[in-house]
Predict the structure.
Amino acid sequence: SFGAKAQTIEVNQVGYQINAPKIAAVLNSTNGTKFFITNISGTDTLFSAQLQPARNDVYANNIPVQLADFSAFQQSGTFQLIVPGAINKPQIIIQSLPFYTVGKAVLKGYYYQRASMPLLPQYAGVWARPAGHPDNAVLIHESAATNERPAGSTIATPGGWYDAGDYNKYVVNSGITMYTLLSAYAHYATYFDTLTTNIPETGNGLPDIINELLYNLRWMLTMQDTDGGVYHKCTNAAFDGMVMPNAATQPRYVIEKTTAATLDFAAVMAQAARIFAKWQNNRLPHLADSCKQAAVKAWQWAEQHPNLDYNQTSMNAKFKPAVTTGAYGDTHLIDEWFWAAAELAITTKDKPYINWLLQYKVPVAVIPSWNQVAALGMFSLLNHANQLSASLQPLIQNCKLQAIEVANYLLQHGNMAMHTVMGQSNNDFIWGGNAVAANQGMWLLQVFQLTGERRYLNGALSNADYLLGRNATGYCYITGFGTKSPMHPHHRPSIADGIQAPVPGLLVGGPNPARQDGQIYPNNYPETAYTDNDKAYAANEIAINWNAPAVFLLNGLNYWALQ
Ligand code: G3I
Ligand code: 9MR
């Protein structure tokens, strides 16, 4: 009837696992009755069932949504989903391992972010490009000047990944990113041991996830000054224009050493030391030891400089040139202390870290983000419980209770209309909200591993469905995947390379009604405030800390499907 909104069916466009829950959403639908799954040409009906009663999607202007649950249909192949009255008949892919290719791609995404080296056609395909940012003579910014390293002198800090759609490298954001990738390996080693991503190091005897994260870890090590403190970032003074990396030649600086960067660095290096120990007698001699020493030195520096928060505005009042790139400023560091203490306690078993943990206890852990890292330490402690001293066991028990309590809460408070864990409240739809969905999924996968209860696994899967298309925009939010995915991410190489398709395997930030980029969005409802516009950096940028939980989630789901 006039004015009624068209009924559209939104599905996980990448695919459904054959033995798992399989749900599609019919938007703007109130009185639908049956749905049908047919062969791809629509001639044979293979399955049909009732649509569920409509519920309003409170995050999408209360549109009525009816779910089509075809979990009972367990046949692999490509099918068509038909709802009488709907304007589309989406393709449905059912496979034993539907997230295998996309899981690889989100890991490969990091290769495309590499600074200081050319991407060759045999690895990068049409997205091959010359090296950008050698970063072998980066200026000491006034804010970072010391007697030994006066402003204007240089250090070498090559390599690492570009943070996001911009070309700067930020230690704080590298911290959570590295943790997440290292943890993915720690949890799913047998799976990652054989997963290759066609990068220059493939076949060198190390798993490619390790090869990839080593590229950034080696950069991080260069960001530590001889006194143990860690520079906050390696950056231009101002963001580059929309040019390729090799055309972005503005001077680079390392900026003041901060407590947050140094603690995050300590945590990552302590965690890396445990994981790299596996190869200390062959592929990675001495690296585990170097990481451990770097971590200890960083912690000691942080103890001596506990209050050096990064405040870009006040820094710019004192030092030149003014720096206007990403701040990653955080003034609440108890979670950073806890995370670093936890990783160092696990790796070294030394008293000072154990005592710190016993004195300060476990901060309230929330879904991780670059400035909320308590849960990182919490899960690390939990996963190493049997190696830790008796004195720490009550604290670890507290971690376990928190982990399960949050997981239960997540399962109970999702978006009921779309049947996703994503959508606990409006606060899920923020700058980088798609990483909130992925991190919720990561949390649930870890609690599934702890408890063996399948409902947690299913909760994680619901957020994979969200990211891959079962949401009110109908976008699959990973570039290069699905039938409708971002074509114009705020990602300088994707904009400047003259190739129509964006660099693949990158998760965009997602709906964000705050729209801090000042662009025009279709609306400002939490779940639909999204635009595939390359100027809309508050919704359509990509970032290393957002891809990482997608690596964990999608590959974790693959791992469990293979068990
Ligand atoms: O901390 C407040 C919180 O107290 C308040 O309740 C909430 C309400 O919106 O806002 C919180 O602050 C937000 C902050 O992130 C912490 O989550 C800001 O509004 C929000 O604008 C800020 O967004 C960050 C953005 O940079 C701007 O600083 C994103 O998390 C962060 O992912 C993004 O990172 C950028 C880098 O700076 C540069 N490189 C690209 C990268 C991705 O866009
Ligand atoms: O490209 C920048 C992106 O990486 C950041 O997330 C964003 C917010 O800090 O800023 C982008 O740069 C814009 C700058 O803030 C304002 N002038 C236009 C720049 C490119 O869109």
About this structure: The longest strand covers residues 63-69. Residues 332-413 form one domain. Residues 163-164, 166, 326-327, 371, 430-432, 514, 516, 537, 541, 543 surround G3I (ligand 1) (CB under 6 Å).
